[in-house]
């Protein structure tokens, strides 16, 4: 990459449009994606050099069949379960449609009307308060009362009235009718514009009058309404043409990388796990009924937060937010309603829309992301990707064993206040082979079947982290599983 950039330096002349050859690379574990802005021959050369270094220098095996070259413009490249494609800038930032422009104008007009109403209400209250004060003072003065103050407020009152006067003048001069009226009063019956009168007056007086007339014309001369409208329309048209020209040039000379989440695969995974029925509507997962209420909410929260964190950099992140906020949330409500044999409305009224649940100390806690929190989520950089597969394809069932002195199997944990949990896997519950691509979701990994129904002691903190997806089975010592009949 450094060699290519040294051979193709950037031109610092702004008058010349220069697009040098560039190489970009991103790696996660043993997967690497290299993107070049040059020719296909350069891409093949870079790929061959990388493969030779890996095989000869590092002596590692490389999947040459999977190490293929694709066109980033005409094809979608898959990496980390996401779809990458090079598109023009107008695809990522499309121009506003006429409907959107009209909606924005109506919104701005409504906001301006609301601001004017608030201002009028504020002025009305101010006038009423001033009249009350003046009326009170007038009554006191008529009765012979004298007012003595320990402090002087003349400067503050003068400054306040000065601010009110300036605001009134500014608002007054915004009206074309008021300006036209005063301009007509000042300029009517103007005898100093006659030449025979001006010749008989001193030059200083004539110059002072001309300066006054220029000032009046500058501040009070009303412009015709259609002239202002035409100027505004011309400026708007020029700005639109300038933006259109800039957008066309960028589309012809630049390409941006678009990252999309495979929304169809996400919906298929949601349906496979049992969040939705055949019609795509939320449904309860009966396997989770044996868990505590807090563990049920934590399991749903682990899946939802993993998806929100993993696909935070995608262009269609809004679709992921809908899946989490609607399908997962209401599937959790239906599961809780199924467990307590109540209706969905009763479950929502008990746990609220935010799925609040009380802990051991009676303090309400929220594990599932709230609707407001999901709505405020925006584009982020993917810094530490943690796939959702482990949280989606596994649940932990707590066993009814109270007396256990076994240590927690989480790495670097010495806690002995533990509870026994049994691992249940998704593929065994559905009786589906993950190697069968027709029945399984493409790209969704599965936990090995040898871990199904294994028992492991965990402390309350690490059990909660495993349900929430903060840790995975890689953080557990899988060689110390407990055999429970």
Automatic annotation (TrEMBL):
Residues 256-376 form the Domain X domain. It comes from the Eukaryota. GO terms for biological process: homing of group II introns; mitochondrial mRNA processing. GO terms for cellular component: mitochondrion. GO terms for molecular function: RNA-directed DNA polymerase activity. This is Domain X domain-containing protein. It comes from Aegilops tauschii subsp. strangulata (Goatgrass).
């Amino acid at each position: 990459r450094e060699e290519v950039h040294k051979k193709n330096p950037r031109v610092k002349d702004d008058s010349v449009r220069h697009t040098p050859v560039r190489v970009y690379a991103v790696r996660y574990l043993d997967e690497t994606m290299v993107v070049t802005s040059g020719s296909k021959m350069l891409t093949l050369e870079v790929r061959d050099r990388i493969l030779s270094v890996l095989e000869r220098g590092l002596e590692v095996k490389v999947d040459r069949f999977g190490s293929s070259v694709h066109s980033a413009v005409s094809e979608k490249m898959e990496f980390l379960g996401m779809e990458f494609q090079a598109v023009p800038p107008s695809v990522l930032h499309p121009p506003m449609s006429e409907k959107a422009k009209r909606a924005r104008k109506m919104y701005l007009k409504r906001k301006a009307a609301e601001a004017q109403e608030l201002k009028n209400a504020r002025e009305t209250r101010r006038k009423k308060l001033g009249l009350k004060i003046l009326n009170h003072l007038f009554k006191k003065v008529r009765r012979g009362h004298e007012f003595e103050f320990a402090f002087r407020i003349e400067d503050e009152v003068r400054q306040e009235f000065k601010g009110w006067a300036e605001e009134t003048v500014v608002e007054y001069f915004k009206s074309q009718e008021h300006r036209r009226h005063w301009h007509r009063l000042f300029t009517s019956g103007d005898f100093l514009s006659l030449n025979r009168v001006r010749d008989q007056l001193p030059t200083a007086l004539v110059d002072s009058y001309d300066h006054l007339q220029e000032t009046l014309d500058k501040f009070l001369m009303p412009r015709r309404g259609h002239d202002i409208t035409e100027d505004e329309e011309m400026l708007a048209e020029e700005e639109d043409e300038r933006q259109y020209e800039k957008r066309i040039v960028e589309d012809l000379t630049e390409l941006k990388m678009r990252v999309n989440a495979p929304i169809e695969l996400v919906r298929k995974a949601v349906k496979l796990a049992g969040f939705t029925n055949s019609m795509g509507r939320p449904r309860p997962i009966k396997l989770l009924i044996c868990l505590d209420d807090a563990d049920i909410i934590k399991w749903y929260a682990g899946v939802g937060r993993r998806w929100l964190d993993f696909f935070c950099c995608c262009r269609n992140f809004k679709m992921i937010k809908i899946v989490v906020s609607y399908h997962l949330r209401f599937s959790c409500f239906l599961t809780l309603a199924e467990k307590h044999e109540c209706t969905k409305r009763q479950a929502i009224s008990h746990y609220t829309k935010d799925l609040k649940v009380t802990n051991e100390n009676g303090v309400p806690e929220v594990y599932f992301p709230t609707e407001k929190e999901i709505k405020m989520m925006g584009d982020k950089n993917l810094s530490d990707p943690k796939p959702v597969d482990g949280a989606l394809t596994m649940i932990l069932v707590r066993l009814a064993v109270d007396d256990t002195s076994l240590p927690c199997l989480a790495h670097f944990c010495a806690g002995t206040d533990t509870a026994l949990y049994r691992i249940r896997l998704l593929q065994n519950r559905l009786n589906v082979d993950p190697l069968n691509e027709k029945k399984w979701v493409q790209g969704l990994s599965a936990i090995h079947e040898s871990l199904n129904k294994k028992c492991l002691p965990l402390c309350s903190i690490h059990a909660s982290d495993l349900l929430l997806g903060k840790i995975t089975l890689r953080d557990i010592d899988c060689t110390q599983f407990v055999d429970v009949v």
